[in-house]
Amino acid sequence: MHTIVESTHGAVPVPSPDHEWTVLFFITEPGIGERLPHLAGCTTGLCTVRDEAAAFARANARVLGVSAHPPGHLRAFAESHDLGYPLAGDPDLALGRALGVPEVRAGERTLFDRAVVVLDSSGRVRALIHPVTDPGQHAALALEHLDRLRGHG
Q1: Helices marked H in the chain — which ranges?
Q2: Each residue of 56-107: pLDDT tens digit?
Q3: Which residue numbers delimit the Alkyl hydroperoxide reductase subunit C/ Thiol specific antioxidant domain (predicted)?
């Protein structure tokens, strides 16, 4: 699979042509836990990814957060949390569905469930990590899978 997604950093190729791995962190919606506590944890999960930026760089992995919202909706959130990586909007759920990411209902809306997809440089799905029950482990789960894929774990 090869595509271009609109993100808070502009158009971004998936997979990244400059990295061995592309790691997509799928979330429901930043701040949704205030309205729907059972879906809480997006902010925590995305911040764990930010906090592990050096580990992803060492693994030669491009990181991208993905939500079922337009990038403009995500820009203020990304800036206020100084994420340092792009958040992509997938309002029609096409990218997530192409990759097999599970979905959840939030009232009348369909959103992505919390998951991680690891793509190799050819665009092949090498890991689909779901469920991610502890948002505080979102980055750690991805890094564990990257270590195994790279033969280090």
Answers
A1: 42-51, 53-58, 71-80, 94-99, 138-149
A2: 999 999 999 999 988 777 888 888 889 999 999 999 999 999 999 999 998 8
A3: 39-127
Domains and CATH numbers, the chain: 3-149 (3.40.30.10)
If 0-12 CB within 10 Å is exposed, 13-18 middle and 19+ buried, where does residue 103 land? middle
Pairing between β-strand 115-120 and β-strand 125-129 as defined by DSSP bridges: antiparallel
For 146, the token pair is: 């990257």
Tell me whether strands 21-26 and 115-120 are parallel, antiparallel or unpaired. Answer: antiparallel
Residue 77's pLDDT is 81
> Left (φ > 0), alpha (ψ -120 to 50) or beta: where does 151 sit?
left
Which structure tokens are listed for 148?
């195994």
Which pLDDT score, from 0 to 100, does residue 153 have? 63
pTM of the model: 0.93
Please give the Cα distance from 16 to 18 (Å, whole number). 5
Ranking 23-37, 53-67, 125-139 by mean pLDDT, the lowest is 23-37
